[in-house]
Structure formats: structure tokens, C-alpha cells
From TrEMBL, chain A:
Keywords: Cell membrane, Membrane, Transmembrane, Transmembrane helix, Transport. The chain crosses the membrane at residues 30-57, 95-121, 133-157, 189-211, 250-269, 296-320. The lineage of its organism: Bacteria, Bacillati, Actinomycetota, Actinomycetes, Micrococcales. CDD domains: TM_PBP2. It comes from the Bacteria. InterPro entries: ABC_transporter_permease, MetI-like, MetI-like_sf. It holds the Pfam family BPD_transp_1. Its main location: membrane. It is found in: Cell membrane. This is Sugar ABC transporter permease. It comes from Arthrobacter horti.
Automatic annotation (TrEMBL), chain B:
The chain crosses the membrane at residues 26-48, 93-115, 124-145, 157-176, 214-235, 255-281. Residues 89-281 form the ABC transmembrane type-1 domain. This is Carbohydrate ABC transporter permease. It comes from the Bacteria. It is found in: Cell membrane. It holds the Pfam family BPD_transp_1. Signal peptide: none annotated. The keyword Transmembrane applies.
Length: 332, 295
């Protein structure tokens, strides 16, 4: 297996043509490969891959999580959760989040990013707005804050009597909002929660889009200008098509956030579910089913439904991007 | 100033400095208004939380605005000690610190081998690594709970560190893979010719060369792990609490009860250190975001 001589197997001075020659298998190399791949992959397989696989298997059993025994029950866990009104309610709420949160976050962060990068003069060099660095830094703040702290903070801001929001509304004379329970009323609880999530992510995606926009060659903008395109046309016909892959990434990640939303809802609503379960999400149901009701089998089935929803959504985003002409960029 | 500019040089202006037209000014003005508005929406809640952390509960009840009548620094000592935020902070530093070092080391190791060595199964391992990134974490949590229990480490630092490290691996490998791939090969070749083994080549040459990439990934891993909530809440319910988890259980215990000042102080303690570090290193971080997106 090991060759005694390395490198110069072919006589003559021809120095390595291929960048990676076949080398002998030394102890150095074997130990190197074993350790460098072995240690990370063993960890990864035990703690990441195997739980995912087990989750799929358990979702077809009646495992309680406590007894070592369980029976396979076919699809009955799935049948059961799709007849469970509470889970369906949670699924509906997640879908609502999925429709609103990514769209609003992306529109808002894209608008801010466009304004920061190309809001400057319409003559000469394509320039950003003055002071754009400041806005970028400030907008990014929420991303550095743990989601749980964001949730608790906003829970206080929405507080009916001592909260910042009602305080501000009263201060500008909207006394109708005196003591209005934003999180306690099923009409506003979901909207208020959505705002919190959006607040937490706009800055990050703004920075991401700014980076994308800066990567667009300036000649494109100059050419568009010479052709007489205005700011809006430039944004719609150059900026957005050029960073559509960034937008796709953002959509996928925000979709994952919206289908989860566990941490925000847990922090905002001490009584899980909020008023009339208007903010109950699937992850909360999963959590209670597993760790409080001890129905691990049912809980993992919920997890599988969430995973399928997430993957389905990602697939949809890729598909839409492809169908609307992503990748092979059509520039006007 | 604007009038002067406009009247002096419509044509043949010597300096090639672009002038602002009327519409430019309007657009810039509107842009600033929009951006300032958003900045206020971002900063105001934070300032309010900070301010409230020095108030007594009665101050908070009296008015949501206004400075504290007496500055209650004792809110912080109650949050730190009575609410155990100090202890949770320490746990977080330990768990996140060790996990971060481990995941960077292990991630760099496997990314390097996957990126620069040809061997049977390479592609399979890489795709398996990526697959872990596509499934939502909560699917894994229930079986993971059981696995940790079976190994006998449920509720320990080791369990948290092993879980944090493993779940951060996929992102780390994914990012560093392309980074190692783009490093020039000649230097490694030269090292090999000079007699350096694979181990030495990696630790003394490749790893230092990858420093910018490592820094970016480390920053994102730090934020991701420090802010992690789902993992500790599910698998560490009985273990030494980390900050996000401890803050949550403190807020829960309080319910509608009394000590709002201490709650605001606890939130501030959670938010402020990372925010300050961010402000200091924001230049590097902004760079990382752009690096992360350029692939």
C-alpha cells in the first residue's frame, strides 16, 4: 500500500503537473485524516444526524418518552394531530406568520438598504447617503440581542398601563389607547407579535442587502442613468434583480423563523397561546406535548410536520425564484 | 449654500464634483427622515429599558417616561444575585466559550480535509453535513433529550457543550469549506516539500492563513450560541441555566408581580455586553456579513 519513494516516480525532471499528486499513505497522513474527520463527524452523527433520524421513527410510535417500550402505530399520530383543533390553530397561526413576517421584513429592509446605498446624488459617482454608516450600525443593534430578551422587553413595552407604547400614545393625545392591552386582545396580539419579530430582523437583512447592493458593478447604474432611468426604475430594474439571490436567502431564513417563532411567543405571552390562542405556534404545542404531557411520539410527529412545512416552503421559494427568471439574470 | 451652488455652475464647472439637484435634496431629505425614524424605533425601546432599569417599581408605575426619582443601582445587585443572573451569565460564558473554541477547531479541521483532499466518500460527508443545516432544530430536540439521558450527561455542562458544538458544526463547515478551497495551494505544497507533515501544515500554515474567515464564522457562531434559546429550554431544564434560559424563567416566575426594576436590570445585563462589543467591533462584523453573503 505504501510506496517507498514519493513524488518522483516518473523519471525525469517533470515537476508536478497536477496540483495534487497522489502521495504515499504515511502514518502522518492517516492519523491526520482519521482525527480531522473522525472526531467532528462522530459528534455530528451522535448529536445531530441520529436525533433527526430517530425523530422520524418515533413519529410512528406511541412512545411516551419515559418507558423504554413503545409500539409502532402507523400514521395514527399524524391523523391525531390533524384532528387536534389546537394544533390546527397553531398551524394556522404559523402560516399567518409565514405570509406576513418574511414579506414585510424584506420589503422594509430592502427599502432601507436601497435608500442607504443609492439615495445620494443622482449625478457623478453612484454614492450612498451621508451618514449611512450610522444608520447601518444602529439598525443592526437588535440582531445582537438575544431573542428572549427582545421578547421580554417588548412584553413590557406593550404593557397596558406602564408600557412605553401606551405612554407614547397618551402623550400625543390618543387617550383611547389608555390601558389598551395590545397583547391581551386577540385582535392585536398577533400583529403586535409580528412587529416584534420584524423589529428584530430588519437591521440584519438591511446590512445583508447593503452588502449585496455594493457588489453590483457601478457601471450598471451609470448606464441606466445615461438611458434616463429614474431612481425608482433603477431600484426595480437593476438593484432588485441583481440581488435576487440574497432576497431568496432572506426569504428562506425568515420563513424558518416564522414557522418556529417559539422564543418570541414564549417571551411575550406568559400564558402560552395568548388571548384565545391567537398566538399559539406549533413549536409550543410540540414542547408541551413532549415535556408536559409525555407524548413523545405525538410530539415528534408534530416536529415532522414542521420540518416538512419548512422544507416545502424553502422549495417553493427556490421554485418561484427559478420560474421568475432567477440565476440567469435578465437585465433590462 | 444650495442656492449658491445652483447659480454658479450649470456648465463648465471646473471641479468634477457632482452637485446636488433639487430632486436630489428632496430624495436625500426623505431618505434621512425614513432612516432616522427607523433608528428611533430601534433605539427608543433600548433606551427606555435602560432607563427603567434604574427605577423603582413605583417610579415605573407613575410614568413610563421621565428620569428615575432616585437612581436605583440596587436593581442590578438584585438582578445579579437574587435573580441569579450573575450565575447564569457565568454559565453562558463557560458553555458558549468552550463550545465556540471546539466548534471552530473541529469545524476548521473537517472543512479543511473536505475542501482540500480527494478521497472516496468526500462528497457524501459534505452533503450529510449540509443536511443538518436544512432541518429545523426542534425536530431533533425530543430524541436528543433521550440520547443525553441515555449517555448519562443530561443536565450537565458537557451535554450543553456537546450539543452546542454539534449544532454549530454544519454552518461552520459550510462557510469554511469554500474559504479553505480558495486558499492558494502553493504554500501548503512548499511546506510539504520542506518536510512538514499534514498536522504541522494545518496548524502552522493553513489555519493562520484562514484567520479572516475564522473570525467571521466565530462572530456568527458566538451570536448564534449566546442567543440560543430552544436548545437550553428543551434539554437543559434540569441543568445549570444559561443566560437566555435563566432570564426567561426569571420573567416567568415574576409573572405580574413586583420587581420590574430588577427585571429591566436583568434584561439590560443580558443585552448590554454584546451590544457594547458589537459597537466596538462593528466594522469587522459588517465585513463579515458581506463575506457571508458573497457566496
Amino acid at each position: 500500500m505504501t510506496q517507498p519513494v514519493s513524488g518522483t516516480t516518473k523519471g525525469g525532471g517533470q515537476a508536478a503537473a497536477a496540483p495534487r499528486r497522489r502521495k504515499k499513505l504515511t502514518w502522518d497522513k492517516v492519523s491526520f485524516m482519521l482525527v480531522f474527520l473522525g472526531v467532528p463527524f462522530v459528534l455530528y452523527i451522535i448529536f445531530v444526524i441520529s436525533p433527526f433520524i430517530q425523530a422520524f421513527i418515533y413519529s410512528f410510535t406511541n412512545w411516551s418518552g419515559f418507558s423504554p417500550k413503545y409500539d409502532f402505530v402507523g400514521l395514527s399520530n399524524y391523523v391525531r394531530i390533524f384532528q387536534d383543533n389546537l394544533f390546527l390553530k397553531a398551524l394556522g397561526n404559523n402560516i399567518l406568520l409565514l405570509v406576513v413576517v418574511p414579506l414585510v421584513t424584506i420589503v422594509l429592509s430592502l427599502a432601507l438598504a436601497v435608500v442607504v446605498t443609492v439615495g445620494g446624488s443622482s449625478k457623478g459617482q453612484v454614492k450612498g447617503l451621508k451618514g449611512s454608516g450610522f444608520y447601518r450600525v444602529v439598525s443592526f443593534f437588535p440582531y445582537t440581542i438575544p431573542a428572549i430578551a427582545i421578547g421580554i422587553m417588548w412584553g413590557q413595552i406593550y404593557d397596558p398601563s406602564n408600557g412605553l407604547l401606551n405612554g407614547l400614545l397618551r402623550a400625543v393625545g390618543l387617550s383611547g389607547f389608555k390601558d389598551y392591552p395590545w397583547l391581551g386582545d386577540s385582535r392585536t396580539a398577533m400583529l403586535a407579535s409580528m412587529f416584534v419579530i420584524i423589529w428584530g430582523f430588519v437591521g440584519f437583512y438591511m446590512v445583508l442587502f447593503i452588502a449585496g447592493i455594493k457588489g453590483i458593478p457601478a457601471e450598471l447604474y451609470e448606464a441606466a442613468r445615461i438611458d434616463g432611468a429614474g431612481r425608482l426604475r433603477t431600484a426595480m430594474n437593476i438593484t432588485i434583480p441583481m440581488i435576487r439571490d440574497n432576497i431568496q436567502t432572506a426569504y428562506v431564513y425568515l420563513g424558518i423563523v416564522a414557522l418556529d417563532a417559539f422564543v418570541y411567543m414564549a417571551a411575550l405571552f406568559p400564558n402560552a397561546g395568548g388571548p384565545e390562542n391567537s398566538t399559539l405556534v406549533m413549536a409550543q404545542q410540540l414542547f408541551f406535548t413532549a415535556f408536559q404531557r409525555g407524548q413523545f411520539g405525538v410530539a415528534t410527529a408534530m416536529g415532522v410536520v414542521m420540518a416538512v412545512a419548512t422544507l416545502g416552503f424553502s422549495g417553493l421559494v427556490f421554485l418561484v425564484n427559478r420560474l421568475t427568471g432567477g440565476k440567469d439574470q435578465e437585465l433590462v | 449654500m444650495s442656492v449658491l451652488n445652483k447659480t454658479t455652475a450649470p456648465e463648465g464647472h471646473v471641479e468634477r464634483k457632482a452637485e446636488a439637484t433639487k430632486s436630489d435634496k428632496a430624495v436625500a431629505g426623505v431618505s434621512h427622515v425614513v432612516l432616522i425614524l427607523w433608528s428611533v424605533i430601534v433605539v427608543l425601546p433600548l433606551l427606555w429599558t435602560f432607563m427603567s432599569s434604574f427605577k423603582s417599581s413605583s417610579d415605573i408605575f407613575a410614568s413610563p417616561f421621565g428620569l428615575p426619582t432616585v437612581w436605583h443601582f440596587d436593581n442590578y445587585s438584585r438582578a445579579w444575585q437574587t435573580a441569579h443572573i450573575g450565575e447564569y451569565f457565568g454559565n453562558s460564558v463557560l458553555v458558549v466559550g468552550v463550545s465556540l473554541v471546539l466548534v471552530m477547531l473541529l469545524g476548521a479541521m473537517s472543512a479543511y480535509v473536505l475542501a482540500r483532499f480527494k478521497f472516496w466518500g468526500n462528497r457524501f460527508l459534505y452533503i450529510m453535513m449540509l443536511a443538518g443545516n436544512t432541518f429545523p432544530i426542534f425536530l431533533a430536540m425530543v430524541p436528543l433529550f433521550k440520547i443525553l439521558q441515555n449517555i448519562g450527561i443530561l443536565g450537565t455542562y458537557q451535554a450543553m457543550i456537546a450539543t452546542y458544538t454539534s449544532f454549530a458544526l454544519a454552518f461552520t463547515v459550510f462557510f469554511l469549506h469554500s474559504f479553505f478551497r480558495n486558499l492558494p495551494g502553493e504554500i501548503a505544497e512548499a511546506a510539504a516539500i520542506d518536510g512538514a507533515g499534514e498536522w504541522r501544515t494545518f496548524f502552522q500554515i493553513m489555519l493562520p492563513m484562514a484567520r479572516p474567515g475564522l473570525a467571521s464564522v466565530a462572530i456568527f457562531n458566538f451570536l448564534g450560541l449566546w442567543n440560543q434559546f430552544l436548545i437550553p429550554v428543551t434539554i437543559n431544564a434540569s441543568g445549570p441555566k444559561v443566560l437566555s434560559q435563566g432570564l426567561f424563567s426569571y420573567a416567568q416566575q415574576m409573572g405580574y408581580a413586583v420587581d420590574f426594576g430588577a427585571l429591566f436590570a436583568a434584561v439590560t445585563v443580558t443585552v448590554l455586553p454584546v451590544l457594547v462589543v458589537y459597537i466596538i467591533f462593528q466594522r469587522q462584523l459588517q465585513g463579515s456579513v458581506s463575506q457571508g453573503t458573497s457566496r
